[in-house]
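Pipeline run #58 for the internal structure catalog. This entry was flagged by the ingest filter as a single-chain record with no existing model, so it goes straight to prediction. Upstream metadata was stripped on purpose; only the residue string is passed forward. Reviewer on rotation: M.T. Logging verbosity set to normal.
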Amino acid sequence: MTADRHQLSLLQPAITHRGEPGRLRVLTLNVQHANPARTRRQADWLAGQDADVLVLTEVTPGGHTLTQALEERGFTVHMGDGGGDYLTVIASRTGKQEPAEVRPTHLPHRCAAVRLHTDEGFTVGVVGLYVPSRGPQERRNVDKRAFQDAVAALLPRLADDLAVSGPIVIAGDLNVVEPGHQPHHAVFGAWEYAFYDAFGAAGYTDAFRHCHPETIDHSWYGRRSGDGYRFDHLFCSSADAVRTCSYLHEPRTSGLSDHAAMTATITVPAL
């Protein structure tokens, strides 16, 4: 990118966004450690969606290009604390963000959490998670299992930690599939399915399954096999609050990311 084009990008005006009273539209996307040029294209696409809140995973260390690009487009941005490999970012353009102290004991930078104070006077909890992949041979599943265990330990007390008056939304790339996933992937162990089940045990509803009990859809496809995986998830503390939930495949098919986005509409406050 030339210096002139870069300057024009920095001067791009914020896109006007109007939320819908009583509804919160959430979108989550794995941004696939995008370089600066692709990050700005992602920011353009994200700003063009009707989402009020974004949960973005696999953000490159530092995340400065993404933070700047989203702020230029009218978002307030919060990212997971600390250094490390990949970050999780929460961005919103409605209400007011208040960072929340939700920190797994392992890889805490892969978790981000906020209390979102809505214009209607309610607070909504938003938690973003990026579970590690299985990892290189010498550390196969070490970080993944440790992070999953740390998050599972947080879930039963999450409502008390956030202390919000509205629902809690947990979203991101969990790198696990649900029990009964089609197609079946023999590589996943019982401990990975147990992590998925931990959300339900703590009172969180799989929004996609709530809206589509029988639908088969995937958010990532194997590079060699072409098999689909439903890796990206959104859970809500109130099933009654979930109005819509679906995958948006444009980011994946257009090359913005190797993942589909997931979007959901949540009633605020929960009915």
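catalog note: The mean pLDDT is 91.
catalog note: The chain has one domain: 20-267.
status: ready for reviewer M.T.
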